[in-house]
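Weekly modeling sync, notes
Attendees: AB, CL, MP (scribe)

Item 1: holo prediction request
CL wants a bound-state model with EPU before deciding which constructs to order. AB pointed out that an apo prediction alone won't tell us much about the pocket. Agreed to run with the ligand included and paste results into these notes for async review.

Input as submitted:
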Amino acid sequence: MSQHTTLRVGGLADALVHVKTLSELRSLVQFCRERDIPLFILGEGSNLIVRDGGIRGVVLRLGGELEQVNFNTTKVTVGGGVYLPHLIVQAARKGLSGLERCTGVPGTVGGALISNAGTADEFIGDLVQSVTVLTEEGEVRELSRDELRFGYRWSNLREKGLIIVGAALNLQPDEPSAIMERIHHRWRYRRQTQPVNQPCAGCIFKNPPGERAGRLLEAAGLKGVRIGDAQVSPLHANFIVNLGKATANDVLTLAEHMRQTVHERFGILLEYEVQIVGDD
Ligand code: EPU
């Protein structure tokens, strides 16, 4: 899984399957259900730490018709496997604004919706009109806005077994050049404040209410601290970067050290923002 995650750590999966159509996806879900094989949906692997023992069962990636994008006036209908950075630029060229809040989020639409990605105070969930899911029973359901709940880096789409096959997002008309300017502005900020060119998994911890995890971690003296090849980024203390040969164990040991240090120093127990999966 180190080849399929942006942090570049993680052991082997039993199988990695790319599905290209909804019907292939349904067959695979049924196949796994009948045999009790666990199924893990992988997006871009950008908010994910896979442990060194890897993942038992099938790891699934959505492609083909599940990566389609259709614009209809101010609405865009997208597949769950769509790569968000491409969608943001496509929308900007069409003169549709809203997705700028996700600038620099290197994930899929499905992954972004599940974790309600965005900045610290603007989220993709605010754009959602509906989300189409495949249930564990193999049924396709469209969940309307009022069946969906989005919180800070949380959504009720995490409910067991739901696979996001697509979504309809509401955007706002605006000048393409003005939208592109906002995207560039946000990109510049990210490049200045985050280790965007090093293997990492985005922010490791959620911001506690009224605080910034990065600020607390820096104030606790953690910037630059290393375990093996896992290092607290000297640029942003809420990022762990892989200097080359880090293992998931190095990363998770370092993350726990960061958590404990902040707890001892400030009495705040940070909550993980990254998804951690797999066997030790
Ligand atoms: N700060 C420090 N030291 C650090 C890092 C940050 O003092 O090492 C301070 C900054 O000086 C600033 C404040 O903390 O005053 C906030 O920093 P920043 O603007 O970088 O935002 P953040 O709260 O750390 C959030 C999201 C990011 C998102 C950025 C930019 C969370 C956990 N993180 O970071 O999302 O990219 O805003 O919009 O909500 C992610 O979810 O993986 C992620 C990277």
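Recorded for review: The longest helix spans residues 248-266.
Action items: CL to compare against the apo run; MP to circulate these notes.
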